[in-house]
Specification:
This protein is α+β, with helices and mostly antiparallel strands and 411 residues long. The protein is built from eleven helices and 18 strands.
Length: 411
Amino acid sequence: MRAVRGVALSAALCALLMVLTSCGWGTDAAVQTPLALSRVNNALHTGAEDLTVRLNQAATALKGKTPEEAPVVLEMLCTDVAEADHCFTVDGARAVTAITPASASGQIGTVAHLWQSQAPEPPVSETGTRINPGCSQVYRSPAGFEGMDAGVMLDPVGGVALTLRLADWLDAVIGPALEGMPFEVWVMQPDGLILYDANREEVGRNLFVDPLYNEYPSLQELGKRIAAEEAGGGVYTFLREDMQEPVEKTATWTTFDFCGQPWRIVLAHGGGGREEGALVSETGLEAAQNALRKLATDPVLSDALATGDAAWGRTAFRSLYDAYPDVYSVQFVDKDGVNQYGYPPENSLEGYDFRSLQSERDAQFLAIVQREHEATADTPLLEGPMGHFFLVPVYQGDQYLGMIYTIQTDR
């Protein structure tokens, strides 16, 4: 399940800002929800709320309208919810009476999935009263996407609804919440159906029966726990982002209830292990810190950072990373508070802008960068071991470029 980069703070950032209660990981004790997973869950709640508002607005606008007048309102609904494949109204028999876009007009007269399934009847919308929509079960549409209908009744003899391209909607909601982060997020029903993954080839597959997953028993075993437990954590092996090489990943999950349907939201992180043959020299916290100080004074590195030569910067970071087995990652945050990149990429922020001030923690990190002084912090990482952070300012002449920093663990 492919990595998605996101706005939630990484294990590295959580450790740096000492968010002890949000970033812990345990296998014996109760698993605490990582900050990144909380961000995704909050984004889903916001997305569901927005969908509810849009449907209620459409229901209000359709009051007293004839089927001939409905398309204008439906077009607005489909514009507001860009991930809707089509929007429609139904009559008392639950047959489609009006639909947009026109290319879906073949469905007029048919009964929508929302009223075919065993889902509860959508509640009735009353003027000035906000109600939550009813939803169908997830189904495979004739167009080949995983779909879900969501709608409300206008009165006892009609309703308004839309059909979501579910993976598109989840991507639109989750993607912005993960901008710049090396995490993977996938969404699964308890029956094993994959509703969302950045690798669209996995959407619509079933974790428990699809041949793609049969070669990875640890993933399927963890999947059984994910299906049975509303929240938890564990480890599994599956292909890395390029779908070529198996790697070990750490997963934490929670449950998001969408229209009464429990979806497991899985946050995974991994694939940042060292390659065989990596150079090993002297170890230890002090030695790695001295190496970072030396790297910070290298004019070739400062030129690379100043000119945006990320390839050379990563090469320099990799040299330090390979030389010190205890180093978890080496990263660069520029003077403006944008974490540009690091090595290995799987353990590094990329393009995360702390100036967005998504939370108080962003402001705290930005303050560290702006102080232009060496800084250290010790705190547990998301994965569990203690992390030791060391930041060193980098200059080109008198110009402050930002900070390079290492993370070391007790593993």
